[in-house]
Every structure is written in C-alpha cells, then in structure tokens.
Specification:
The chain is of the alpha+beta class and 300 residues long. The protein contains 4 helices and 11 strands.
C-alpha cells in the first residue's frame, strides 16, 4: 500500500511539473517560431542573442504600471532628429515579425500582374524564402527580423550604413552626397541606394536589385525593374515610422505603398550571429521528414 501511495505522489508531481512547463506564465505569452512573442508581446535581444522583454515598452503593455509618454527624439547640433541613440548610448531598432500594411493597419491590396499573383500564391504554399537560408534582403525585409538593425551615419564621408544583426549579418550603404544612380550597376541584394533628408525624414531612393530575395515578409515578387522609395522618420525616443513605395512595372500594374513601425531597444548592441548555426527553419532547406526530401537544390 505504501508503495502505491508513493508511486501516486511521484506521478502527481511529474504531471504538475510537466503542466507548469507546458503553460505560459501568468500574464505572459508563449514564444512563437523564431522568438516571436505571441499574443501581442514585444521582444528584443539582450546583446548576446537571447530574447527578453524590452524595459522601454513594458509600461505600454500595461504589465508594470501605466504607460508614460515617450521622450522626444534626440537631435544633432543642427536640430535634426537622430536615427541613432544619443551619443555614447547603444541601441538597436526592431521591426519585429510583421508585414507592410496601410496606415490604418489594414492589408494592402496588391495590384499584381497575373504571373506575379501566381508566384505569390505559390510562395504562400511553399515558403522557401531566401532569408531563411542566410541570403541578404533589401528594402523593408532588412528591418523585419527578430534582432533588429543599427543605423550608423558618417557625415564626413556623406554615407549612412544600415547594419543587420541577425540573418546574413550584412549591411547596406546609403550614399548621401547627391550622386545619381549609375548606368552600369550590377544587380544585387541591396541595390544602389541614394539618400537625402527632408526635415526629420530620411528618404532613400534605390534601384538595381536582383530577383534572389523577398523584399518584405510577405510573398510579394519583384523583378530587376524594382524601384523603391523609403521614408524613415523618428517620431519620438521609442518609435520610428517606416514607409515605402514599390514601383515595379515588371510585376505590378501600378505603384503601391505600405508602412510599419520600428521600436527602439536601448542598450542593445550588435553581437556575433552565425546564421546557419542559429537557423530556426531547417525544414525549409532539407524538408520535414527524417531524411532530406528535397528533389533539387533550392538555393536561389
């Protein structure tokens, strides 16, 4: 009898522990694929790749008291809003795992050409996005990763750099010296980017993209005719507005636009990130069975 009671106690203890691990903590949210916080939570990195809650945004979620009004944007000596943190203070910008929407948050109605609509449908069914295989991604996709980006402005060189943290761990160069797009540019992942300031808004005009990446987290195709105009505006200490106009007569019947917001993650810094070793989507490369079930290479 004592042995049966002891066995029941052990089984109850194991069940209780298992249940506590299976459930999300009270007031929290479960982790989604790639570190996404499901249920409306936000996330950031802690400087070494771990995903943690952002202290700057905890009040906005109502978990630790009422939200406090954000501080105004830091500004340079000429009064223009900085895209970086104040001098001497590290920080990154995270767009999270979202997609382009209209200003009211509704879905963008895509003016697809017939072939582009078919490609988009195929991508929805077969999500072989090159970004999951560590390929660079230009345009809005660069900002839509769990680990964020960092802006580095070098006024003396008249250049601005946008550094990826996760994924391919690469960077985009934005030329701020007023040059035009070259006539003989070899198409690549980031294209040729020229920028200028309109008040507090950084305007980036870019062409020269190849077709080997997806330019956002959606399934929208593009061709080498792709022309992007991005508008990036820091609205306060915690928030940056991203807007883009897509003009690709090879894939769409007319230009279209979308937007999303980036959140500041103060204190976070670039860290060493080896893409393949941290890949959360191996099934997209080798399949979902016990052995490789891809009949042909899917490297773009």
């Amino acid at each position: 009898m004592k042995q049966r009671v002891f066995a029941l106690v052990i089984m109850f203890s194991i069940a209780t522990v298992s249940s506590s691990f299976a459930q999300a903590p009270a007031g929290g949210a479960q982790r989604g694929q790639g570190g996404q916080r499901q249920g409306g939570g936000t996330f950031t990195t802690n400087g070494n790749g771990g995903i943690v809650d952002s202290p700057a945004l905890q009040g906005q979620r109502g978990q630790r008291g009422p939200a406090t009004p954000p501080k105004p944007s830091p500004r340079d000596a000429n009064g223009r809003a900085l895209l970086t943190q104040p001098p001497g203070q590290p920080g990154l910008w995270v767009g999270g795992i979202t997609n382009l929407t209209n200003a009211d948050g509704s879905a963008v109605k895509m003016p697809y050409q017939p072939w582009a609509a078919a490609v988009a449908q195929d991508r929805r069914q077969n999500a072989f996005e090159p970004h999951t295989r560590c390929k660079p991604s230009g345009g809005p996709r660069q900002f839509l990763t769990p680990y964020g980006v960092e802006f580095v402005e070098l006024p003396d060189l008249k250049r601005l750099f946008i550094f990826d943290v996760g994924g391919p761990h690469t960077f985009r160069i934005v030329y701020m010296d007023g040059r035009e797009h070259p006539k003989n540019w070899v198409a690549d992942y980031y294209g040729h980017n020229v920028g200028h300031w309109e008040g507090d808004t950084l305007v980036i005009d870019s062409v020269g993209y190849n077709e080997k990446f997806w330019f956002d987290r959606g399934t929208h195709p593009h061709t080498e005719k792709l022309h992007m105009v991005e508008r990036i505006t820091r609205t306060d200490m915690n928030t940056m507005k991203y807007e883009v106009t897509i003009d690709d007569p090879g894939a769409y019947t007319e230009p279209w636009s979308g937007q999303f917001q980036l959140r500041s993650m103060p204190g976070d810094e670039l860290f060493e990130y080896v893409c393949q070793d941290n890949n959360f989507a191996p099934e997209l490369m080798i399949g979902v069975l016990d052995s490789v079930d891809r009949s042909s290479p899917i490297v773009p």
